[in-house]
């Protein structure tokens, strides 16, 4: 079994009372959706709910909702299959939940790291705040399902067919995009970001074609952002101020003039600002609303392991 190294860094903020609105099973569910005994799509099903069934959310974790339904039934359902019965109002709110962690997973994928950022999920879908978005940066060198440890890690924490809000490939080297190719076969991708660095490698071109879609296969990404001019401003929740600091500018001449060709990949956590750099081909910064320094005793401790772990373990 391939060993997986994971670093989890998270931040917490002041207390906040949490209430969930009423939910229903989405109309897009064609037959019925399973409610399971655990937040794992391989666990036993205790019921199968049809579209429009009212449910009450009692707990949330990434990709899953614990619900009650009927008279006394209780179980776990994949988040993407339910929605608020009434659209929640999008209103300014400066309160920060006590458990509002910005989770950053660094996963050893055999050569370099894959990065998975998860914003806090407050269980109120559609209000534009604390939406529980996932942002993935690079995926390692392994394109097969068996060899790629990142694919298994994401599916263990989430489930097959879960949603990634943003998938970023920093540059077209095999140890960055091949692992992402695996992810794209199993996870739904809303936005794909690529600096557009020129490459004539057949493997990379085939990967891009699959992301865009072909005559015989639908696109793996809903929206393609190729080149820095098409990146725009990422919207990953009103509580998070995210920006792309740098990407390939379009020519070797401009690249050499603007920034050194290589920098050491690093993560900086000053106050609540997170900067991620990868070979200077794409750099990303995200800042939460919390401006004061985070008290040491209220921060969740980092989690580090050098062997496979139970993905449901909380640090």
Please, could you describe this protein's structure?
- The chain has helices at residues 149-157, 174-186, 202-212, 252-258, and strands spanning 6-9, 22-25, 33-36, 45-49, 54-61, 64-69, 73-78, 82-84, 103-108, 113-118, 134-137, 163-168, 188-194, 221-226, 240-247, 266-270, 273-278, 282-288, 303-305.
- It is mainly β.
- An 8-stranded mixed beta sheet has the order 14-13-12-11-10-9-1-19, with helices on one face.
- Helix 2 packs parallel to helix 3 (202-212).
- The longest helix has 13 residues, at 174-186.
Q: What is this structure, in a nutshell?
A:
Helix 1 (149-157) packs parallel to helix 2 (174-186) and helix 2 (174-186) runs parallel beside helix 3 (202-212). Strand 3 and strand 4 (45-49) form a beta hairpin. 13% of the residues lie in helices and 33% in strands.
Provide a count of the helices: 4
Quaternary state of this entry equals: single chain
How helix-rich are the residues, as a percent range? 10-25%
Based on helices, strands and strand pairing, what is the structural class? mainly beta
> Could you give the distance between the termini?
23 Å
**Neighbour order of strands in the largest sheet:** 14-13-12-11-10-9-1-19
What are the main properties of this structure?
mainly beta; 13% helix; disordered C terminus; 4 helices; five-stranded antiparallel β-sheet; 315 residues; eight-stranded mixed β-sheet
